[in-house]
Amino acid sequence: MGFAKNCPENEWIVTELFKLLGDDGYGVRDTLLEGACAYLPEAALRSLVELCQKASQSEGDEGRKRHWLIFVELLAKELKDPALFEQTRMSSWGKLNPAAHLRLSHLLQEPRRLRPPGPCTIPPPCRQDGRCSAQKET
Q1: How far apart are CA 125 and CA 9, in angstroms?
Q2: CA 47 – CA 13 distance, rounded (Å)
Q3: How far apart are CA 126 and CA 23, in angstroms?
Q4: Distances, alpha carbon 3 to alpha carbons 9, 19, 125, in Å
Q5: So what's the pLDDT on residue 121?
């Protein structure tokens, strides 16, 4: 998570995170999204939401479709976006259960605390392919 927070190439982080989420055979990679607002700015999180929504729409299997929509719900929580959460839950299940109503009430009451974009603080290369040109802060 520290690596992602300090890398200026948010698009690359989103792409890699999306790949990891897509290969989640055991259902444990959703933890990567917990606290995502601490290492990705809002624009990057919204880009990941779009990717997950598109992946959900392209799935033929209902289970795989919900797999992606669960990630969108988690991102909605990170973004403190009750409308996105509600829309996604309705799309996934067709209704809001008591747990969803409770989550919505929490989202409506929580203040938004999103990470603004910032400079990379790790020395080059910060990516495995060595393309990051950011310099270590002094």
Answers
A1: 12
A2: 11
A3: 23
A4: 11, 17, 11
A5: 46
Looking at residue 55, its pLDDT comes to 94
Can you read off the two tokens belonging to residue 93? 């299940």
Strands (E), 31-130: none
Which of 125, 17, 119 shows the shortest CA–CA distance to 71? 17
Two structure tokens written together for 84: 């996105």
Of 82, 75, 124, the residue nearest 101 (C-alpha): 82
Task: Place 125 in a pLDDT band, splitting at 50, 70 and 90.
Answer: very low
- Residue identified by tokens 């509600």 is 86
Token digits for 91? 């799309």
At 113, the pLDDT band (50, 70, 90 cuts) reads low
Prediction pTM value: 0.72
Evaluate whether 51 touches 78 at the Cβ level (below 8 Å): no
Tokens at 130, concatenated: 């060595």
**What is the average pLDDT score of the chain?**
77
Query: To which H or E segment does residue 5 belong?
Result: helix 2-6
